[in-house]
Amino acid sequence: MLNEIYNKTKESMNKSIDALKKDFTTLRSGKVSTSIVESIKVDYYGTPTLLTQVGSVLTPDATTIVINPWEKNILKDIEKAIQEANIGVNPNNDGESIKLFFPPMTVEQRKETAKKTKIMGEKAKVSVRNIRKDANNDVKKLEKDKSITEDESKKAQDEIQKITDEFTKIAEGLSKQKEAEILKV
After folding, report:
1. What tens-digit pLDDT sequence spans the chain (185 residues)?
2. CATH number, position 68
3. Domain count, the chain
4. Residue 114 belongs to domain spanning
5. Residue 76 CB: number of other CB atoms within 10 A?
6. pTM of the shown model
7. Are residues 43 and 86 in the same domain?
């Protein structure tokens, strides 16, 4: 019973860490990432379709994203979708592909993005602590139902706290790593 609770707790906390990593992909560091445009939807023959499904998205250098549509007739639709997404740059349509030129990040932009990193890290740690609370409630319920003793309950809660500390450290480490990456010029 307790091992099930531990496994469920670890699984849920891993999902929180995965969510944090996914959140970090939306942040811009020194080098642009294709994740900036991955959620943009293009009107593809009347159907909203992800940009990555209508063409290839590449980053040839640290400040440029190039979108090569598989069908040249949808260039205008892609251009319109990017403008509506308001990602901070205007698309350049050369008739073959669309290029997005991102200016290098200023110190202020880097600091602002680093703040977002901290906020995302805190959100992940809160999520981990909420999972701990749920796991402890499950243990207390077992104790109340006389399925486990008071000593077993205490040991289980200590084990859940160890798991929580482990995942909190992981979230902090990832946040510091991403923050350093963003602030590095």
Report:
1. 889 999 999 999 999 999 999 888 777 777 788 888 888 999 988 899 998 899 999 999 888 999 999 998 999 999 999 888 888 788 999 989 999 998 888 888 888 889 999 999 999 999 999 999 999 999 999 999 999 999 999 999 999 999 999 999 999 999 999 998 888 86
2. 3.30.1360.40
3. 2
4. 2-26+106-183
5. 12
6. 0.73
7. yes
